[in-house]
Write a structure and sequence with these properties.
This protein is an alpha+beta fold. Helix content is 25%, strand content 35%. A 5-stranded antiparallel sheet has the order 1-2-3-6-7, sandwiched between helices. The longest helix has 16 residues. The protein is globular. It starts with 25 loop residues before the first helix and ends with a helix. The mean pLDDT is 96. The structure holds zinc ion. The site of zinc ion has 4 residues, from helix 2.
Length: 153
């Protein structure tokens, strides 16, 4: 396992769309292990593959001690709304409010290629949405209610 360098905002790689994972092999496991280690090293709650320079649809999250790896994730249900501040390891010290669903259900594959379903509320829903946005080249500052403060810096 190795801590990988986090790609920062301004790098166009963060703006690209990631491709689905096709092979659930040792290369994927190494990537996931490195993402996990990099997330913990940086005190993050989630990390998406593009943030370590890999344009593949996988994310790792750790919300309230629940660690999960989501490969080729897809949100299948969402409901309600919730506004809280978010930050991002690729953005730095800026935190801004973002409106997210209050609860959601996501379908994904684990590292062995088995499909599973994860449901959650509040922080879990927020974290999943934030990380899945990364897979489509979207950063939280794009949709933050406080984005004017960020972009006028
Ligand atoms: Zn982020």
């Amino acid at each position: 396992m190795a801590v990988r360098k986090i790609v920062k905002i301004g790098d166009e790689l963060l703006r690209k769309k990631s491709k689905p994972v096709k092979h659930f092999d040792e290369d994927l496991w190494e990537l996931l292990d490195d993402m996990k280690e990099s997330m913990y090293k940086n005190d993050g709650m989630g990390l998406a593959a593009p943030q370590v320079g890999v344009l593949r649809r996988c994310v790792v999250i750790d919300v309230n001690g629940l660690y999960a790896e989501l490969i080729n994730p897809k949100i299948t249900f969402q409901d309600g709304e919730d506004i809280e501040e978010e930050g991002c390891l690729s953005v730095g010290s800026f935190h801004g409010r973002v409106k997210r669903p209050y609860k959601l259900t996501v379908e994904a594959y684990d590292r062995y290629g088995y499909q599973f379903v994860l449901s959650g509320e509040k922080m879990l829903a927020r974290c999943v949405c934030h990380e899945l946005d990364h897979l489509d080249g979207i950063l939280f500052v794009d949709k933050s209610l406080d984005k004017d403060k960020y972009f006028k810096k």
